[in-house]
Specification:
about 130 residues; binds zinc ion; alpha+beta
């Protein structure tokens, strides 16, 4: 016998979907994904040391020679090239000199502490100008 208080079909059962949270991937522009594309498109590349602040030009052709055209500088760091510094440098890229530099880090562990870095050190700052 049916419940006299119910009129019409019963509501559908609740569906509970449980899944792992998706890893949040930043949307990198195509020009920033590999050093091969950077070389083809004349993308400007720099590295900045987390410890001493040294800002260096990086030639995409050098990275292509060292790692291959498909290598990505995103979330990669290398040893600082300043003599006497044992810091790690991360990469920054810009499409043109008059556009903003984009930090090529997405890994939260690598991004952590970026706000507390020393000011960029360039030839100009070393000369006191
Ligand atoms: Zn350094």
């Amino acid at each position: 016998m049916t419940d006299p208080g119910s009129a019409g079909p019963s509501p559908p059962p609740a569906i509970i979907v449980t899944r792992m949270p998706a890893k949040i991937e930043p949307l990198w522009p195509r020009w920033a994904k590999t050093v091969g594309v950077m070389l083809q498109r004349n993308i400007l590349l720099r590295s900045q040391c987390r410890r001493c602040g040294t800002l260096m030009r990086v030639e995409p052709a050098d990275l292509v020679a060292r790692h291959g055209a498909g290598w990505s500088p995103i979330d990669h760091q290398e040893r600082c090239r300043m003599v006497g510094c044992d810091g790690a440098s991360y990469y920054l890229a810009a499409r043109r000199i008059d556009t903003a530099w984009r930090v090529l880090l997405a890994d939260p562990a690598l991004i952590q502490g970026l706000d507390d870095l020393p000011a960029p050190v360039t030839a100009r700052t070393l000369r006191g100008g």
